[in-house]
Structures are given as structure tokens and as C-alpha cells.
Amino acid sequence: MKIIAMIPARYSASRFPGKLMKDLGGKPVILRTYQAALQTNLFDEVYVVTDSDVIFSTITNADGKAIMSIKEHECGSDRIAEAVENIDADIVINVQGDEPFIDAVSLSKLIDVFKNDIKNEIDLASLKVQITNQEDIENLNNVKVITDIDNLAIYFSRSVIPYHRDKDIEVKYYKHKGVYAFRKQALIDFYNTPMTPLEAAEKIEAIRYQEIGKKIKMVETDVEAVGIDTPEDLEKAKQFLNL
After folding, report:
1. Which of 105, 117, 176, 236 lies 20 to 30 A from 229 at CA?
2. CA–CA separation, 74 vs 193, rounded Å?
3. What's the CA gap between 35 and 19, in Å, rounded?
4. Which residues contact 27 (CB under 8 A, 6 or more apart)?
5. Is 133 exposed, middle or buried (0-12, 13-18, 19+ CB in 10 A)?
6. CA separation for the pair 193, 208 (Å, rounded)
7. DSSP assignment of 22-87, as one string?
8. Residue-wise burial string across 75-104, b where 16 or more C-beta atoms lie within 10 A, e elsewhere
9. Residues in CB range of 101: below 8 A, 6 or more apart
10. Could you tell me what percentage of the chain is helix, strand and coil, using 3-state DSSP and rounding each to the nearest 5?
11. Would you list the DSSP string of 158-190?
12. Averaged pLDDT of the chain
């Protein structure tokens, strides 16, 4: 299998504009993420996919591979799908551009899903992490996921799922981490399908895959990413870098 990593990188960000170009220990955040992805040695190729001339030149000036988006995109899957359409690849990993401290162990587990999928039944693999704090469980910004006994995703929601009606039954809650591994064809099918009703209602791109019949294997991890969504997160990342 040819396995590539795609790092979608929008310059604009509602909570922290230009965050991918902020300095993190002498390098822009996006360059640190790109180089960290290379250093995992998990991928045959690593690309940054961006709508920004500044990000594009930052990567290419460092001898990296970058692709300019042609269209405007609502989500990372669309941006990656446009870029990967004419690239030779079997498995495409979506690496978050604002998470420079890459969890190589979890990414390796996602890749293993496809290596072990002898019948080619799985279309996507993604990560989930258990959450126990009630505030996290009820937080609408945290996408929750429920799975079947084979860890195939049943549904994703910003609401609290499952609903804990019978308090005598133990219930575990899982947050969906937006790190995906795709078969290339699943990405292309997603890209060629308009936004679906439940996806539009919840604003969760994973639901479109389910609405068009794709199987998503969830892999549990206990690693919480050091993501950069706010200026405060950037300061924490700087401290983490210096540990």
C-alpha cells in the first residue's frame, strides 16, 4: 500500500487567525507539523494542502511539498480530496495542521486497520478518546461517537450520546478526534457527494461518510493532542516544546 499524509492548512481561523504561521520555537506551527509528520517515517509522502500563498511558500522554501487548493472548501476532507484526486495513493492520512506534536503511535494504529483489513471492508479509520468529565461530555464543541461491538462507528453527535437513562448501567463516553485515515476512493466519493442532511444539521463531516454508506473503524487512544486553537494554546505548546 502507498500511504501518504495530507495536512489541510487554512490561513483563516475564526478563533485564532493566522495561527498556523505563528512562531513556535523558531519555526511556524505549520512547518513544525509538516516536519514532525515526515519524522514519523510512517508515510511515503507528506503534503500540505493550503489556500494560502504564505503557507505554500513557507513549506516549499523549506524543501517541503505543498499543494494550492483551487476551490473554496467547507471541510478538510474536501480540501484533501481535491488535492489527492490525481496523486497515486492507496491510503490517505489527514494530519491536523495545528497539532505539531504528532502522536505517531496512534497514527500507526490507524494504518494497521487497513493492513489487517483483508477483505477491504473498511473505508475510513479514525480516533476516539474516552472522556469522563461531565463538562466535557456535555460540551457541544466535543463531537461524541458511539460504536458497535466491532468498533465500527454507529453515529457522531455534538449531543450527549448515548443518553444515560438507566443509571444502574455503566456507560462510557468517547470524544471523536478529527484524525482520519481514508481509502482514496472513500475520499473521492465524499467529495463528489453534496453535503448530506444530518451532516448539515450537526456540522460534522464524518456523518456524510456514514450517510453515503461508508464504514468507519474507530481506534481508541488515550493520547490527548496538543492542539493550537487559541493564543493560550500556543503558549502551552511553547512550554511543551521546552520540556
Report:
1. 105
2. 13
3. 17
4. 35
5. exposed
6. 8
7. SEETTEEHHHHHHHHHHHTT--SEEEEEES-HHHHHHHHHTT--EEE-SS--SSHHHHHHHHHTTS
8. bbbbbbbbbbeeeebebbbbbbbbbbbbbe
9. 36, 225, 226, 237, 240, 241
10. 35, 25, 45
11. SS-SS----TTS---EEEEEEEEEEEHHHHHHH
12. 93
Q: What is the pTM of this model?
A: 0.90
Tell me the pLDDT tens digit for each residue of 127-165.
999 999 999 999 998 999 999 999 999 999 999 999 999
Is 92:80 a contact under the CB 8 Å cutoff? yes
For cell 473521492, name the residue. Answer: 188
Q: Is the confidence at residue 74, as pLDDT, over 90?
A: no
Three-class secondary structure of residue 240 per DSSP: helix
pLDDT score of 71: 75
Q: What is the pLDDT of residue 243?
A: 54
Contact (Cβ atoms closer than 8 angstroms) between residue 83 and residue 4: no
Distance CA 13, CA 44 (A): 29
Task: With H, G, I as helix, E, B as strand and everything else as coil, classify residue 92.
Answer: strand
Is the pLDDT at 15 greater than 60, yes or no?
Answer: yes
